[in-house]
Amino acid sequence: MADIVADLNARHDLTMPVAAVAARREAGRVPFAVVSGSTRESVTASLSALGLLDRFDVLVCAGDYARPKPDPEAFLLAARLLGVPPRSCLVFEDADLGIRAATEAGMASVRVPQPRQG
């Protein structure tokens, strides 16, 4: 971020304070997590293949929690690791068990349908 601000300053004859702009951007950043029943290796491989691994602050995978969805444990662990209260979380889920787990965790949720097969 600091390099981008410095480059913009140089290219456009600006005087943006590099440290202040970087701090403001970081303060407004929304933290993201993946909560999955798959292994960490599988989740990491999938996200890496899609070029998305660096977009997530936290991965909660099989083996990180004892009770699977619909138990809210995995979602509550993700919230704790992100430092975000459960009531401030929004879960995107493709399965009924996940929606139930999010609800039990006190989180809002959005149902994401499976892609159509055919």
Assigned CATH class of the largest domain: Alpha Beta
What's the gyration radius in Å?
A: 18 Å
Low-confidence stretches: none
The CATH homologous superfamily of the largest domain corresponds to HAD superfamily/HAD-like
- Order of helix and strand elements from N to C terminus: HHEHEHEHE
Our count of domains comes out at 2
| Shape label | elongated
Can you list the strand order of the major beta sheet? 1-2
Short overview:
The chain has helices at residues 2-12, 18-27, 40-49, 73-82, 96-104; strands spanning 33-35, 58-60, 90-93, 108-111.
Spell out the key features of this protein.
42% helix; 118 residues; alpha/beta; Rossmann fold; two-stranded parallel sheet; 5 helices
What does this structure look like?
There is one protein chain. With 118 residues, this protein is α/β, with parallel strands linked by helices. Helix content is 42%, strand content 12%. The strands form two sheets. A two-stranded parallel ribbon has the order 1-2. Helix 1 crosses helix 2.
